[in-house]
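Dear colleagues,

As part of the handover before I leave the project, I'm documenting each prediction I ran so the next person doesn't have to rerun anything. This entry is a single chain, and its sequence is reproduced below.
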Amino acid sequence: MSLRSWGPRQWLVATGAAVLAAVLIGVPTGVVPSAFYSRMTPVLWWNYPVWAVSSVLMGLLAGTYAGGPGPATGRDRPRSARALAAGVLSVLAVGCPVCNKLVVLALGMSGAMSYWAPAQPVLAVASVALLAHALVKRLRTASACPVPTPATGEPSGPEAAADGGAGTPDPAGPATTMSSH
């Protein structure tokens, strides 16, 4: 699967998810000025590109799950959890070091500025790298593991026809028998 082959549904999901990610990262961290939050330290120059790149990568990753007519399956949850963890890393990376109550509780105010603030660029690089890796991995495997349709439980698309439906679960679930004792 490549981005060039995406349909309108995937681009719509990707755009919506990117905007949502931008709001969910930008507002609570003070990268986006708002009445909801007042940042105690200035936003650094590198916070903006990390915020923007993380939001776009999250949006594109979400778009890969909108390929078929149905929702993502339970098989995609571990990857989704990793992508969510990378998103949390983005929040920690661009957030105010002394505004994070857990960091201040663990390290104190001076520790937050002395130890946490210098670690934030490393978190930013790790977050962007994890999101980029997840996107590349998902783009490579999305056509091999199409999203099943809700009605049949079978994968959709031309890749699904290639295996003749072999290996797909029965939509009714496993057969069970009841015995009378």
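The longest helix spans residues 101-141. The CA atoms of residues 154 and 165 lie 7 Å apart.

All the best with the project,
I.
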